[in-house]
Amino acid sequence: MTPQDETRAADQSDAMGYPHRHLLGIEGLTAGEIEFLLDLSESYVDFHKGDRGRRGLLAGRTVINLFFENSTRTLTSFELAAKRLGADVINMAVGVSSVKKGETLIDTAVTLNAMHPDVLTVRHDQSGAVKLLSEKVNCAVINGGDGSHEHPTQALLDALTIRRRKGRLAGLKVAICGDVLHSRVARSNIHLLTIMGAEVRVIAPPTLLPAKVERLGVSSYIDMREGLADADIVMMLRLQTERMQGSYVPSIREYFRFFGLDYDKLSVAKPDALIMHPGPMNRGVEIDSEVADDIGRSAIREQVEMGVAVRMAVLDTLTRHLRWNS
Fold this sequence. Notes:
By secondary structure, the protein is α/β, with parallel strands linked by helices.
């Protein structure tokens, strides 16, 4: 068997761990498929830090990052991941104001499809838009966040961060706190963590809790100290004012008083509880600066680092069928 045949066989074997063409969400994935992506992401952590052994894995492939919403960390992370695998990368930041619904999105998909990209990463302000676009193109599609629906790579990087710090996901008590109603990060994390056997709690004012959220397999609380009691992981969410129409909280000061994470509220969690935040952080709104910068307990910077490794793993996985046929 030639080296090329060995690589092809390995790709085919590994692809059985994630047999899907796209990554549109966490909902519907199995524990085995999630574990596969996390294990592969783990192998890319050292690569991201300096080992460049697989730099040419996506040489000759084209990745288009199509972002209809502004982004700094996510777009940069996807771009860096693709470039470190050797892909040609095109970033298309499309202002929301210049894009209409329905046919315009489909026309965009048709136009991009004519360019024959290998992977399309899409962020859109409308839930379901990424899935619609995936049905109109021939390449692999990654959901970089769609409306209030899902943000799968964020949930994967959060899970990788937790697993590296705690050694497991099953059995952990995870509290997700803040604007759960508008958060695609919360939804993807709820799906992933419950699939992997964690106990998930959501904590928010009644106005920021989705209706019947318990149907997702979580417990809901409207009191921070009650919800944080004995928690292993405390995951804070920002107030997504850009998705709010009307008043959801009395004032920022009142919100921080009752739902902002400080050491007083954190005292009821486990002494080694891990502090997380998907960013961007609003210091003094959902989290106190001293807590956010706690070197021993905060994993916020590590989350950013894990994001590149996870996105490299996803790009690797979704392009393996291309390498079978090359």
